[in-house]
Design brief:
By secondary structure, the chain is α+β, with helices and mostly antiparallel strands. It is built from five helices and six strands. Strands 1, 2, 3, 4, 5 and 6 form a six-stranded antiparallel β-sheet that branches.
Length: 183
Amino acid sequence: MNLWLRLFALIFSFAFRPRIPLPEGFSSRAFRVLPSDIDANLHMTNGRYPCFVDLTRLDFFVRTRMIQTAFQRDWRPMMLASKFRFRRELKPFRKFRVETRLRWWDGTNLVFESRFLTRARDRSEILSAISLERTCFYARKDKSLVPVEDLFAAMGRSGLAPPPASAEILAFMQTEDEIRRAN
């Protein structure tokens, strides 16, 4: 139930939050670990992290106007793959923030990075987890994936060049391509 409440709170907040500029902008959302988020080890369960990523990516899509542009053309967002790296646990009632940004794109792929951040006792920031997500938009009428340049053109942002792909993005994309070819 708390995921529904978090989703409704997110949707309500859209009217009060500024737009996110492409490509350098990012979504940042604050949360707290609730009892329903924890597992037998008394920290946030691994299965809850993707839910928070979904919420912040939705925030990114709406506040960049990416989702509105896509829905007007009957394009739908799809998650193709994700990879998480857990560094520090999030204990019950701990406040944390999820930052989601568009890191790279090519062809029909958008690669997002989501960072789970919390504060240490000295108020310094701690990276609790990080993920990469490979997403795309699917054109239902054409039954095909939408090229990113077509998405950006429809948003009035033609000519955006992707930033250079980092080593971890290249490794992530290569691994995903190998898994896809193997199956």
